[in-house]
């Protein structure tokens, strides 16, 4: 309105002059009233030029452009004796911004919502927009009745303002109940488990999932219809919910109303268009089946699968068009898929952007497609997974660009993560044997992409809590940009919470080869100097057939061989894939004091359930070993032990299995013998409480035991426990808090109900020896 009004006044004031003297020429243009805006910038916006005739329409457009800059409150234009003068009144500057009344919401959250800052030009409409943004943040946190106003203090002499945003937070509401009126064929529970909004509960309150959020409610309103369409109700009618607020209890009840209508089944499925694959093969793989209830979700998945089927063999622009029509027979529909095949596409060029540190070849080796090859859609997704699994990037975007002539460029844009990280932590560990050993300090650092070459360099130090551990490592999974692996570990390890005290100092180089993109074989020739003592300071027998020969120091020279298949989508917190390794360790391969052979397997699966992001994670570990002596007794430092948070939760650390008595200094001693055979199964159900902060609730069932040489693996001797964990991927490392209760136990078993762990080996299935 301001621009139109000024332009109209301008036109009327000049109308008579322009009509009488339409040959009047502009001899000079003057700019007045500018304080903060540069004159050069304003002149560049004004299109009217010296030497031109006065043109009211052109001047009006100049005024419109100047107002769009949002710098000015008022603009006057005066023409007198050939001089055209633009007189400006600038908007005041915001010299100070205060927020009053903030109690519940974090200051950082509000700062993220603010787009105004000191030094900006004051604009009333922008202030109103700012208030709406802050309201959105409060509504997301459950403050439905928040009231936000602004107070502007003008300092006319200095043409500036002080802005105060006043907040009355009101009450924070949580959702007590969600009711679905009219739901008959589907239960409320079936519907509500798909909603983003959640009813009150202890874990949901901790994660903030039960707070009332208008945006979530709006999305759930749309999702309600989708849920019914996914279950065959094509005539579903749903409405936005009625919301009842209880200001006393600060609770809300949501009531949705639905009219379900008829539930339709699929009578027939048709395939039309460019069919290049056998129809029997296509029909067998479609999720939509004749006789099943119609499902929007399954039809979309079938479209996705059919598109990928064609795009994976080069037909990159293939389109699949569905058609759903009601049959003459009530309650039935026909589903047809029309396939419009494109031409065959080839990769012309792979463009990589965003990598200021990481070398191009490091990124290219994780891209499954090569220039000149046939385009493949699944290969693009595989490339994305591989690049994200590397841990070098915060985000990866892979976008194909298709040209006429059946060629495509693959544009890969990466956002690099931090060069490295150093963290320091500490606390109290229940794993230690006494108070003096209970306190621990952890210090670790790593460079995940050393020199931009994809090398991993780091160290890990842990003191206290029953352990003194140091590890330095350097590893290159693709040395010299090949499929060969090379690395080095230097380590020192001392444990006080084993049945004995074990001190180890050693080095372990490693060499390997990738057999495929997800499978590798690695060799670890190693050297260790090991001291083993009983807790009372007495030496422990190395071999069962020589119980009197205790030792204070031994050398272990070994070769460990691993074959690893790893398809996890995330190493730290996987939600899909598997980890399988078969390993062999040969003691005495290069001399030393201990001669033995050990074999083992670790198999872990990560199976998404499709419900609330929950992942079922069964893990199995098996190991067997024997000494290369006359008794075949596995040396004591190499034996298997079970119990504790890493193996069978609910039992004390490494206390399961048989014990061994021996005579020393004319008296009999008893130690936990450990076993030469081990079987452990961990069945975890990982439920995300808050993915934002990396918090998970994990119910579990553990089964396990170790057995000595003369014993067979007897299922009746297995120990079983059950309980739950809280897992937190914290800024200073992964944390586990475990509460386990033995289900199958014996009277001499040592119990550890509560436990926790911090750091390097917290979640990793690779670490099987403790």
Note down, in words, how this protein is organized.
This protein is 17% helix and 44% strand. By secondary structure, it is an alpha+beta fold. The protein has six domains: 2-90, membrane protein fhac (Ubiquitin-like (UB roll), Roll), CATH 3.10.20; 93-168, Ubiquitin-like (UB roll); 174-259, Ubiquitin-like (UB roll) (Roll); 265-340, Ubiquitin-like (UB roll) (Roll), CATH 3.10.20; 346-416, Ubiquitin-like (UB roll), CATH 3.10.20.310; 420-758, Porin, CATH 2.40.160.50. It has a 16-stranded antiparallel beta sheet with strand order 17-18-19-20-21-22-23-26-27-28-29-33-34-35-36-38. Strands 7, 8, 9 and 10 form a four-stranded mixed beta sheet that branches. It has a three-stranded mixed beta sheet with strand order 1-3-2. The longest helix is centred in the first third of the chain and has 19 residues, at 2-20. The radius of gyration is 36 Å and the shape is globular. 26% of the residues are buried.
Largest sheet composition: 16 strands, antiparallel
Can you identify the CATH superfamily of the largest domain?
membrane protein fhac: a member of the omp85/tpsb transporter family
Gyration radius from CA atoms, angstroms: 36 Å
Distance between the ends: 77 Å
Share of residues in strands:
35-45%
Strand order, main sheet: write it out.
Answer: 17-18-19-20-21-22-23-26-27-28-29-33-34-35-36-38
**Helix content estimate:** 10-25%
Overall pLDDT score: 83
Uncertain stretches: 1-21, 543-551, 760-770
At CATH level 2, the architecture of the largest domain is Beta Barrel
Say how many strands there are. Answer: 38
CATH fold topology of the largest domain = Porin
Number of spatially distinct domains: 6
Shape estimate:
globular
> What's the helix count?
12
Structural class designation: alpha+beta
CATH class category label of the largest domain = Mainly Beta
């Amino acid at each position: 309105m301001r621009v139109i009004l000024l332009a109209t006044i301008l036109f009327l004031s000049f109308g008579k002059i322009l009509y009488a003297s339409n040959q009047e020429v502009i001899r000079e243009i003057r700019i007045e009233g500018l304080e903060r805006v540069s004159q050069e910038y304003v002149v560049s916006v004004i299109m009217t030029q010296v030497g031109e005739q006065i043109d009211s329409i052109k001047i009006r457009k100049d005024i419109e452009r100047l107002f769009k800059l949002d710098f000015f409150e008022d603009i006057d234009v005066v023409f007198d004796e050939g001089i055209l003068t633009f007189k400006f009144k600038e908007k005041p500057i915001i010299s100070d911004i205060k927020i009053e009344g903030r109690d519940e919401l974090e200051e950082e959250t509000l700062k993220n919502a603010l787009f105004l800052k000191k030094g900006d030009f004051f604009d009333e409409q922008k202030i109103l927009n700012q208030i709406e943004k802050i309201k959105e943040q409060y509504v997301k946190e459950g403050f439905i009745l928040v009231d936000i106003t602004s107070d502007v203090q003008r300092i006319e002499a200095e043409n500036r303002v002080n802005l105060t945003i006043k907040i009355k937070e009101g009450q924070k509401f949580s959702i007590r109940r969600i009711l679905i009126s009219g739901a008959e064929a589907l239960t409320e529970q079936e519907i509500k488990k798909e909603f983003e909004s959640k009813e009150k509960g202890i874990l949901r309150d901790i994660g903030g999932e039960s707070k009332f959020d208008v945006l979530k409610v709006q999305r759930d309103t749309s999702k309600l219809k989708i849920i019914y369409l996914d279950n065959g109700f094509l005539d579903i009618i749903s409405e936005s919910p009625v919301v009842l607020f209880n200001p006393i209890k600060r609770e809300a009840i949501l009531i949705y109303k639905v009219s379900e209508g008829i539930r339709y089944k699929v009578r027939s499925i048709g395939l039309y268009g460019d069919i290049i694959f056998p129809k029997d093969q296509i029909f067998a793989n479609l999720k939509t089946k004749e006789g099943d209830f119609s499902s929007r979700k399954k039809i979309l998945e079938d479209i996705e699968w059919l598109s990928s089927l064609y795009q994976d063999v080069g037909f990159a622009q293939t389109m699949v068009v569905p058609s759903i029509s009601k049959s003459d027979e009530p309650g039935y529909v026909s589903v047809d898929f029309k396939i419009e095949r494109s031409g065959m596409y080839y990769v012309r060029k792979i463009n990589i952007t965003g990598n200021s540190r990481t070398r191009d070849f490091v990124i290219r080796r994780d891209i499954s497609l090569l220039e000149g090859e046939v385009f493949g859609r699944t290969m693009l997704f595989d490339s994305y997974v591989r690049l994200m699994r590397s841990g070098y990037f915060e985000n990866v975007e892979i976008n194909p660009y298709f040209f006429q002539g059946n060629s495509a460029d693959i544009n890969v844009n990466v956002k690099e993560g931090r060069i490295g990280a150093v963290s320091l932590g500490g606390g109290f560990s229940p794993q230690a044997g006494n108070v003096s050993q209970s306190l621990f300090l952890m210090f670790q650092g790593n460079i995940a992409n050393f020199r931009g070459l994809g090398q991993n360099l780091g160290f890990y130090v842990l003191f206290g809590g029953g352990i003194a551990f140091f590890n330095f490592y350097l590893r290159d999974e693709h040395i010299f940009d090949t499929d060969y692996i090379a690395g080095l570990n230097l380590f020192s390890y001392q444990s006080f919470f084993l049945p004995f005290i074990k001190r180890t100092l050693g080095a372990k180089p490693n060499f390997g080869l990738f057999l495929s993109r997800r499978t590798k074989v690695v060799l670890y020739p190693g050297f260790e100097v090991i001291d083993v003592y009983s807790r009372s300071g007495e030496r422990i027998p190395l071999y069962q057939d020589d119980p009197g020969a205790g030792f204070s120091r031994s050398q272990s020279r070994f070769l460990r061989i691993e074959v690893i298949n790893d398809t996890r989508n995330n190493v730290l917190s996987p939600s899909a894939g598997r980890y399988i390794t078969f390993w062999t360790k040969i003691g005495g391969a290069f001399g030393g004091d201990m001669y033995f052979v050990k074999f083992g397997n670790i198999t872990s699966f990560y199976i998404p359930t499709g419900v609330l992001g929950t992942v079922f994670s069964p893990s199995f570990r098996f190991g067997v070993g024997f000494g290369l002596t006359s008794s075949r007794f596995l040396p004591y430092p190499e034996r298997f032990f079970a119990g504790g948070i890493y193996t069978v939760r609910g039992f004390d650390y490494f206390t399961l299995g048989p014990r061994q008595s021996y005579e020393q200094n004319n008296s009999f001693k008893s130690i936990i013998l450990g076993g030469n055979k081990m079987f452990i199964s961990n069945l975890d159900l990982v439920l995300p409480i808050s993915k934002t902060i990396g918090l998970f609730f994990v119910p579990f069932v553990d089964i396990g035991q170790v057995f000595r040489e003369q014993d067979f693996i007897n299922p009746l001797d297995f120990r079983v426990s059950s309980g739950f964990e809280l897992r937190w991927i914290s800024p200073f490392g992964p944390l586990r808090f475990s509460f386990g209760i033995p289900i199958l136990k014996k009277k001499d078993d040592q119990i550890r109900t509560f436990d926790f762990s911090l750091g390097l080996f917290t979640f990793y299935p690779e670490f099987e020896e403790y």
